[in-house]
Amino acid sequence: MFGCPRRFLAILAAGVLCLGVGFGSLAQQPGGTLTIGFGTELDTLDTFRSALAAPLKILGLVCDTLFAFDNALQPQPVLVDSWEQAEDGLRWTFHLKEGISFHDGTPFNAQQLKDYLWGFFIDQSFTGWMFAAIEDMVVTGEYTIDFILSEPAPLLLFNLAYPWNIIQPKGAYDEFGDEYGFTALVGTGPFAFEEWIQGDRIVLSRNEDYAHGPAFVKNTGPAYLESIVFRILPEPATLVNELRSGNVDYAQVPTTHLEAVMADDAITVISRASYYSQFLEFNLDRPITNDWRLRNAVNHAIDREALINAAWFGAATTSYGLVAPASFGYWPGIVGFGKEFLTYNPEVSVQLLEQSGWTLPAGSTVREKDGERLAVKLVTTNSPTYQTLGEATKAMLEEVGFEVELYTFELASYYSVALEGDWDLMHMAWIDESGYSVVKSKASIAAIESGTNDARYRDAALDSLITLAMTTTDDTTRDQAMAAVQQKIVADLVYIPMTVPLSYVAAKTERVGGMQDLALHPWWLDLMLALDLYIK
Amino acid sequence: MLTYLARRTLLLIPILIGVATVVFFGMRLSPGDPVRMIAGPLASEERLDEIRHELGLDKSIPVQYAIWFRNLLRGDLGNSIASGVPAVHLVALRVGATLELTITAFILSLAIALLAGVTAAVKQSSVYDNVVTFGAMFWLSMPSFWLGLMFMSILAVRLPFLPISGRGGSLWTWEGIRHLILPALTLGLPSAGATARIVRSSVLETLSQDYVRTARSKGLRERAVITRHVLKNSLIPVITMTALRLPWLFGGAVIVETVFAWPGMGRLLTAAVFNRDYPVVQAAALITTGLVVFANYAADVLYSVVDPRIRLE
Description:
heterodimer; A: alpha+beta; D-Maltodextrin-Binding Protein, domain 2; Dipeptide-binding Protein, domain 1; Dipeptide-binding Protein, domain 3; 26 strands; about 30% helix; about 25% strand; globular; B: mainly alpha; 12 helices; about 80% helix; about 0% strand
């Protein structure tokens, strides 16, 4: 859900905007160390255990996925040479690339892949559900493996390209046990894990044998950079000072310091739309918010532009759907629908409240119906951005006659409160490369039990549409189903789309080359960062 | 003396158990589920139950406490929920950096406080006295976060004399010392301000004592009067105050470590609280408590060294 906790990752799309000084075009020289400023205090690099999204930035350089998303967000082979699908869609045969080894020397082959995926990754990883249709894996040759499916899985290649579905050697987990992800991390990626000095830095060194980069990446390997150092700098002001002083070459820019970074002539900043969808969510189990007209009144009472300026310092765009524009599966038609439907108009809001029976008693600022006050509990996290979102929303709702109690919690408590259900409205976000994952997580009936559909959104027709979108083998049917799902979610006003925050990365113009290649990919794919960036 | 030390050491045990127990129940009573944090939002109930079982979190809180207490007696503080490695190991990797920072800040604050406080008292009502009194209030009132960023901005960014952040390696190297200066000043100066005020008033009080007048009338030089008679007799409240400031130093280290990217235990503890990594929080709390209790205990011993009339019984 929220920014940092992982699993809530997803795609982005949209245009890339170059700001500041132009990119250099010097020839790539192998060698040099890229120092990346990293704002998150990491817990572990073990994908099975981390509570955060941040480790993916390192895992994406050390480990490969079988497929990776190209610049058009289509899955392209990385560790796979070729593949075919049986006519009935129930058997997929993958021919793996030969001659690839993990960093510890273990050869990458069909048996290694099966040992890792089958009975381990699929059972224990938080993304294992993506492979629920696989009922067996059969190794038919040293580099050939068959996935046997119980039902067609048209999204299989997308799911194999999903950044969290990295391939590691099962043997390394057995060998290092609990130390895996702490003192050891093994993959087939362009960089090998060297050391993690707790609280200080993570050091990666070039995998000299890497030569299997996907065709859409300009440099297929090995990487130009000799090493990458992630310096852990949890305070944004410190991170920006280190960047501006030249001790850090590359960093994601905290929105709060964007202006200062962009004003620095020595720094190049690029921005992209994100797969970060931020919305206001209603608890349908509460009598007040179970009324569609009331939810629509809230919809028309909120000025999204004002929220963008107050909370994101302008570094966001208006959101029109639950799925962010850069997530795969996003339906562009939602913009037209959303622009008609999600408008700021307090007068309409007041009318809707009056029609619902919520009237303003003389001399009062809070509406009432049958003696009950229009009092709602709004919950958000205690991050400065979300506190601002909460405070601004409270003020806007009180303008039309709500009484809003605002509660802010730190993240772990916030999740518990969301699950327990003692709230009416909640500012929430979902960060996910996959639009399918977003709608399944927030709008399917099954997700009520698993806890992500905390709005308690129960709609059998919508549920069928989501299932259809995720299982049909026909591309047109899938696109139509996803469009219908996204439109219905907005029309039902269970989640009112609010903002899509933009992402910014900055690099020292004189030092870092290859940013123009990275910027071609809507997600700034980590694999491209590893292979295409170089020190001038 | 030995009986006293033995008794105080034994007393340490219930204090540590008490603190650890409060932390144990405090963490579990606060909302937030570590299993959901690590299993992700789409995990099935079966998977959540499986992880809860693996971590022993499926048992009732009293049973968890009993198991935790039994393991504590064996010296086992459990493994981190997030990383899987022993919590003590995680804390051990970070405690050195925190000690380096807090001890340096402590020594720095004490040295500044003694120098400024004694001189201000001796030169009472002078311009110097007013400057020290104002300075002490100023540093004492400055929030560490703001102070750290100001130091960084002036002494590391605008005038690049010192590194902006990070730990430069061993304390015994020039780089190590350079990296330590700003965080130690940020942590130490507010403490120096508080202690300097105590030193000043304590020295002033001692200066008015009869034995000081006697020392002076014997013809002793002023410097000898101050160092031999005044300073030593003024130290008791200073030691008390300094010991009381220690927990504050450990608390302040959390902020200073974050601002200066100092890889200490405070940041580990903060992250563990947010992730509900119970064993790490408990281990860090136990070790911090142990250090603070030990420091107070050292202060008690110091009383008897400074003033032989105080006997530890």
